[in-house]
Amino acid sequence: MDRRVFWWSLLLVGVICVPVMIAPERGQQALDAVLGLLTGQFGWLYLWFAIAVFGFLVWLGCSRYGKVKFGTEQDKPEFSTLSWLAMIFTASIGGGIMYWGVIEWAYYYSDPPMQLRSGSVEAAHWAATYPMFHWGFTAWGLFCLPALALAYVYHVRKQRTLRLSDACRGVLGKHADGWVGRVIDVLFIFGLVGAAGTSLGLEVPMVSGGLAEITPLRSGMVLDVAVIVVWTLLFGASVFLGLQKGLRRLADINIWLAFGLGAFILVMGPTVFMIDTFTNSVGILLQNFVEMSFYTDPVGGSGFEEDWTVFYWGWWISYAPFVGLFVARISKGRTIRGMIAGMCLAGSAGCWLAFALLGNTAMFYQIADIVPVADIVRSQGNVAGTMAALSQLPLGAIVLAVFVLLVVLFLATTLDSSAYTMAAVSSSELPRGADPARWHRVFWAVVLAAVSIALMYAGGLEALQTLSIITAFPLIFVLALVAESLRRWLRADHGGGGAPGDLVGSDNSSGDVPRSEFSGPPGQSHEENPVSAISQ
């Protein structure tokens, strides 16, 4: 255990969470003011950064660096491709996609972008398209960037730890082992506690509502606590068993169950409408991708970009280091191009499929005047809207039961990987191929459950969620260091006319770029380059 990271992370969680629990309204007001300042004054920075990361990954995947393998040429992937993709998807956003997949379109339909009229045909078209944009290539690119850098420093440069600060080592050098690196790691753990803890707290009502719909049980505090206890036991047992026996099996079950539910909805739901709407949305997205990426509405002042796109990019950035650390750990034997394709293409396809099946089905019920889903969401909330839409399907009670089970399993996998990652970050050394200590993994699982229960009943979940988005602002600059570090490592190890396989697997345990291998511009020293790179 790295005591500095471990204890300072716990202290920061306590210092922030206790005041929020004591005075949630006042804390929420202060955080909302900060969030409003960041999204209102610096929203453009989130947009430019997200598209810059996307462009960097496109260049990287198409370059000769795309063939670089994470490990030696003889290393084979530790997991099958299906299990690898399942773990990435379920650990990243499985629970979130189940929560928003049914009803996100309803917000865009009622309050559309581009100054469109609420409830119009054009509003419906954009309402089906924007979820695919917010959960598509750009979003997954934000996840992929730290995953690439961490996988490279861990599997190729043989770094003995697996931390976000290690991904900045190419720029920070020895300072990654000092207080700068520890601050980065502590902020990472705190942000992850906030993001994962609020995910647990927000999705408990979804599970409770589903159970109340299909069983005699009543929604309330007792049922919510029971759900959290069962959830904690489930992902606690999985994280105790480790990657192979626990998380991989849980992820595989998730994916096959999701495929089964999706196939049922595709056949028994409004099939033609789903396919037509999805096809139309793909066309709108591809035709307007650049406009949507830079849409700020400065004249109309609708605030759509601040409320949704900037907020989403902040949410993805706050989760990105966690996803990067986890994906790096399970990606030995993969290539840079394979990881980019697996995350940005396969990840986006999985999200698009969820919105095509769940969201378009709910939209059909709205437009056909079968169930007023958008009105229910606006008046009764997300859980009520989701239950109303799914209950309308044939065998609605069974569909609801499977959906609730999927939410439980998806979020259990996310929290499992969260606890695993926090334990890895707060470990002083992690022998190659080894898992963090079992007690360490279970401890962080319990912390996540405790934070979510405490804040749920103190009314402070929204404050912690807001805070996790605020932490995304400094992470923009940290991820910029990550991108520059990766570029330097690749240029040093594979630049200067070297073949793509040169130096793969070299045992540079420090992770620093050797001075003799640094290939910056002529006349520029190794020390000067970080400053110039950041200023540029």
UniProtKB/TrEMBL annotation:
Bilayer disposition of the protein: Multi-pass membrane protein
Membrane-traversing stretches: 5-23, 43-62, 82-103, 132-154, 179-202, 222-243, 255-275, 310-328, 340-368, 388-412, 442-460, 466-483
Name of the protein described by the UniProt record: Betaine/carnitine transporter, BCCT family
Localisation per UniProt entry: Cell membrane
Predominant localisation class: membrane
Entry keyword set: Cell membrane, Membrane, Transmembrane, Transmembrane helix, Transport
Residue ranges, annotated region (Disordered): 497-536
GO cellular component: plasma membrane
Molecular-function annotations in GO: transmembrane transporter activity
Stored Pfam families: BCCT
Annotated NCBIfam families: bcct
Provenance organism: Actinopolyspora mzabensis
Domain of life assignment: Bacteria
